[in-house]
Amino acid sequence: MSAPVRDTDVPAIDIHDLRKSYGAVTALDGLDLQVGQGEVHGFLGPNGAGKSTTIRILLGLLRSDGGRARLLGADPWRDAVDLHRRLAYVPGDVELWPNLTGGEAIDLLSRLRGGADHARRDELCQRFDLDPTKKGRTYSKGNRQKVALIAALASDADLLLLDEPTAGLDPLMEAVFQSCIRESKEAGRTVLLSSHILAQVEVLADRISIIRQGRVVETGSLAQLRHLTRTSVTIQTERPTAALADLPGVHALRVEGEQVTFDVDGPHVAAVVKALGELDVRAMTAHPPTLEQLLLRHYGDELSPRNAEVA
Amino acid sequence: MSTATEPRRRTAVAASSRRGALTGTGTLLRFMLRRDRVRFPAWTLGLAAFMGYFVTALQQVYATPEDIRAIAPLMRGPMGALFGGPGYGMDDPRLEHLLAGLYGVYILLGAGLMSLLTVVRHTRTEEHSGRAELIRSNVVGRHAQLTAALVLTTGMNLVVVGLIGAVMTGQGFDTAGSWLFAVGVGAVGLSFAGVAATTAQLSEYPRAAAGAAGAALGGAFALRALGDMTSEHGNALSWLSPIGWAQQTAPYVLDRWWPLAISVAFAILTAALGYTLSTRRDLAAGLVPPRPGPSRAAPWLRSPLALAWRLQRAQLVGWSLALAVGGGAYGAFTGPALDVFDDAPEELLVVMGGTENITSGFLGVLALTFGVTVAVYAVLAAQTARAEEASGRAEPVLATAVSRQRWLGTHLGVVALGSLWLLLVSGLATGIGAGLSVGNGSLVGEMVLATVVFAPAVWVVLAVAALLYGVAPRAMPVVWAVVGYGLVVGFFGPLLDLPDAALWLSPFEHVGDYPSDAVSGVGLMVLTLLAVAMAAAGLRAFRRRDVLGTG
Questions:
Q1: Neighbouring residues of A188: CB distance < 8 A, sequence distance ≥ 6
Q2: Which residues in A lie closer than 8 A to residue B392 (C-beta atoms)?
Q3: Pairwise CA distance, residues B414 & B412, whole Å
Q4: Which of B189, B399, B454, B521 could form a disulfide with B111 if both were Cys (CB 3.0 to 4.6 A apart)?
Q5: Is A108's CB within 8 Å of B307's CB?
Q6: Cβ neighbours for A94, distance < 8 A, ≥ 6 positions apart
Q7: Cα–Cα distances in Å, from B288 out to A57, A99, B119, B124, B271?
Q8: Cβ contact B480:B400 at 8 Å
Q9: Given a cut of 50, is residue A311 above it in pLDDT?
Q10: Are the beta carbons of A52 and B551 separated by less than 8 Å?
């Protein structure tokens, strides 16, 4: 068994042409993914696109049908146990033992990985506002997720594999989660963060890969992906706004009384903001596109992929 | 909305809410029948078939009135009281007396179990899963769910009464006695439906609700056993038990109906208590609040082996207690049994291994019984691994530095050692019971050896389960066929004159026939090696397959 290489030149995750099917259903159809060490990588895709399948192959829980996957320079299937000492995983749907308390589950998972920092564990329990004395069966979905998150974050793993880790958390806890991920990044850890909500990974990720129907269709830094983003803007003004429609990069302009709504391509936002300065705008909202809008616009996706049941 | 209509509307709502505690009961009942479309006939027909089986089996074993008379002293004694009933009609028993007075108690227990499980299933389980919240937010009254569950359970019991009455009268037994017995079965069912209606209110958890009602059922059995053993036809203790009331009707002997009035009153009172308690708690909450546990794991909980032990501990403790009690009771049967076997029918003695040394034969049958019982434990415990995987709890563990082989291997190891322990417990308890009953201390050692030698056979069953789990987890229940086959061959092989090849296939036939014959050292070795090989193959296969996802 080859020992995992501890070399900063080796990418943390290196996947090439990965394939996996469940019977007749194709989950991964030639997936490529590279994540450098120390990087926070957003792994974005609609439900059923193959995010969990990819992560479970990286954990050696599933065997790929073809292609190549390397994790920290080692084979995730063959070297699973050695690799698992260096990573921590949070599943998308956390199940706990009904008779064990949350605290017992955290300790058990930490110890099975090779020990954790007690002080850090207690601090995380406080920050996430988790009562560790409750039995597993009494926790809500969000609290079960916190148990798995605390067990993962309290470890000194080099790599965090997080599968939709905030799906059950409220906005307050999501903020705690974000600061924890930033701390992990500062500590030099690599994080793979899967989600189906663009805004969730946008604030944390250095780079983003978008997966659709078992393939990565876009990958790069947020700046590089700017061409994909189109900001939706709503303003209120009494001035005439017809000129806006002629500006480059402005789409789908609609006027309803004093309210004007339109979309702007990423590279043209600056010019549009200048133009708005002349219009005596009284109120304005601008929000980034959702992943669904993005995929719909660029790939004309039917948003119920053929194999939605393979999460 | 105008202010003038508001007061009137409010009164209307108030009035209908008083009437409406039962609103929706009919719809819920139809829904429950739809959900139980398999379970309902399975339980009711199953109980009737069980009764039918008793009738045919006893007709075979006790072909003539002389055969029955020969067994009568045994049935009249404390053992008959412990495992049967108060012994009405045992002075000169006919077949129907044995059926209603001895074997009938298992039908009574079955009806009680059916009723309490049905009530808990449609009340507390629904609340715990959160489905009840969805239902109750609809136009459904506060008491509709419990009422529908009780109506459904009453319906099941009525069907059971009809079927069992038909089975008994169909055999030409006295009509009044047959129907009295059948109605007694239903009365026990209703009593425990009421008990479950109460226990379902106490705790948040369906398991605790069913467990408490099940404990009451066990307690009722034990109470009447104590009463029936200490006095002829029972005493006050028997009359404290819902099972006792049904048995005290003495079908085919006294044919008295009035004890069933107590059953009905008991069922009504316990159900009423359930309704009252349910109004004192919130939906999905229990009357007994959940207790917090430790915020840190115990220092020893740090390896896959410790986790496997922690997950199986409760199950193993429960089985140990049950086997210790059961072993002691069966062992105590040895003395009275020996007195009776002198005149017992030939067929019975064949099962016991012939007339040569009846003590050894009897103890051998007990040892086989415990061997098969512990195999049942091993299969159930092995399924823990599958449940862990299917629920998604195995995944985070396998994502730590725990290899698949270690995870599954430690589970299997705990079950293998647990099986050995349970065989030891049952052998020890049986040996002590037998030793006391016959006044021969050497039986303890003999009995311990007789049960413990079944360990390799149990391990083979466990290894078959492990192999199936590794290769095709969905096919794991197939292992029950091995247990069932061992049971049939072990108990009925001698009666059925099965060919050697058929006997050879059962792992339970290769340990020797101790204490009648010597322990087969070669047999034990081969079984152990076979178990190790199959378990290793199972571990290898588990390493090579995908871990099941929850999605």
A1: A37, A38, A158
A2: 91, 93-95
A3: 5
A4: B189
A5: yes
A6: A141, A144, A145, A147, A148, B392, B396
A7: 44, 17, 19, 14, 19
A8: no
A9: no
A10: yes
Of B297, B304, B403, the CB nearest to A80: B403
Question: If you measure CA to CA, which chain A residue comes closest to B394?
Answer: A95
How far is CA B139 from each of CA B30, B127, B145, B280, rounded to the nearest angstrom? 15, 17, 12, 21
Give the count of beta carbons closer than 10 Å to the beta carbon of residue B221: 21
* Structural domains of chain A, with CATH: 13-225 (3.40.50.300), 231-287 (3.30.70)
CB < 8 Å to A144, chain B? none
Q: How far is residue B154 from each of residues B98, B115, B178, B231, B251, measured CA to CA in Å?
A: 27, 8, 20, 33, 22
- CB within 8 Å: B302 and A108: yes
Cα–Cα distance measured from residue A86 to residue B400, given in angstroms and rounded to the nearest whole number: 9
Question: Could you tell me the residue ranges of all domains in chain B?
Answer: 19-278, 304-544
Average pLDDT of chain B is 87
Q: Do A112 and B302 touch (CB under 8 A)?
A: yes
Contact partners, residue B7, CB within 8 Å, separation at least 6: none
B103 pLDDT band, cuts 50/70/90, is confident
**What confidence tens digit (pLDDT) does each residue in B147-190 have?**
999 999 999 999 999 999 999 999 889 999 999 999 999 999 99
Residue B416's nearest CA partner among B375, B369, B472 is B375
**pLDDT the model gives residue A227:** 65
* Interval A28-37: pLDDT, tens: 999 999 999 9
Q: Would you give the DSSP letter of residue B505?
A: T
Q: Residue B399 and residue A87: Cβ atoms within 8 Å?
A: yes
User: In Å, how far from its chain's centre is CA B113?
Assistant: 8
pLDDT at B355 (0 to 100):
52
Where is average pLDDT lowest: A88-92, B351-355, B537-541?
B351-355
Residues A140-152: what's their mean pLDDT? Answer: 93
Instruction: Tell me the whole-structure pTM to 2 decimals.
Output: 0.75
Burial B106-122 (b: 16+ CB within 10 A, else e): bbbbbbbbbbbbbbbbb
Per the omega criterion (within 30 degrees of 0), is the bond before B515 cis? yes
* Model confidence pLDDT, tens digit, residues B389-421: 988 999 999 999 999 999 999 999 999 999 999
pLDDT at A231: 82
DSSP summary character for residue A41:
E
**Interface membership of A139 toward B (CB under 8 Å):** no
Write down the mean pLDDT value for chain A.
86
Average pLDDT over residues B522-547: 95
Of A62, A84, A137, the CB nearest to B547: A62
Query: What pLDDT digit, counting tens, does each position of B428-468 carry?
Result: 999 998 888 888 888 899 999 999 999 999 999 999 999 99
A42 DSSP 8-state letter:
E
Q: Which of B442, B497, B476 is nearest to B434 (CA)?
A: B442
pLDDT of residue A51: 93
Question: Which pLDDT band holds residue B347 (cuts at 50, 70, 90)?
Answer: low
Q: Which residue of chain B comes nearest to A147, CA vs CA? A: B396
Chain B residues with beta carbon closer than 8 angstroms to that of A131: 292
| Phi and psi torsions of B132, nearest 5° | -65, -30
**Structure tokens belonging to residue B489:** 């061959």
Q: Which of A112, A131, A134, A153 to mutate to test the interface with B (most CBs of B within 10 A)?
A: A112
**Quick one: closest CA in A to B391, which residue?**
A95
The set of residues, in sequence order, having a beta carbon less than 8 Å from that of B131 and lying 6+ positions away, is: none
CA atoms of B362 and B351, how far apart (whole Å): 9
Q: Which two tokens stand for residue B506?
A: 């059962």
Give the helix/strand (H/E) hosting B466. helix B455-471
> To the nearest whole percent, how much of chain B has pLDDT over 90?
51
